[in-house]
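quick one before i forget lol
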Amino acid sequence: MGQFIDLTGRRFGKLVVLSRAESRMDATGHPRIYYLCRCDCGTEKEILGASLSKGQTKSCGCGQIAYAKSGDAKRTHGLTGTRLHRIWKNMHTRCYNTNSVKYARYGGRGIKICDEWLGYDGFKNFHDWSIENGYRDDLTIDRIDNDRNYCPDNCRWITNKEQATNKTMCRYITVDGITKTISEWIEFLGVPRWKLYYMDDEKTAKRIAEYMKA
């Protein structure tokens, strides 16, 4: 493992690093270092240290508007039409296109895409992260926490079967006025996953009620 280099006080584009922020866990369970930064526009926000040092994030996001209005927005990265580019575009559609049939489940409830995957270098950053984190053409992107945004520390590449399992585990079950996802009930009750997983909602609720009375 390389030697830790503190970025405090350094400048990256329009950002000046003010201090270390609280570390966060990535998809593999490893801590990721974040820094509190101030943009030249005056905005302060926490940004992934690796994104700063790799030159992936150079502003708080204020530069995206200027980029969209410029002729540079029409430039291409040569990967348009690839599967990975379609995945990236579909993320945008779900999160920002109010006409999308999936908008209500994503953008409609506050799900967004992180700054480093938006703007001029957005797709390049997303592409580089994907390749570094095991992307294959038979995998799909998955948010680990269904209530958090699309960002490096909350996304991973998994199979369609795993994706279907995750969606099942995110079903909400209400018992005695308490509502949790199946995965949350499993953690709350401390029972093996198979005890609640392979059944419909009604049977799952009954099984949960039995465990709560035990």
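fyi The chain has eight helices and ten strands.
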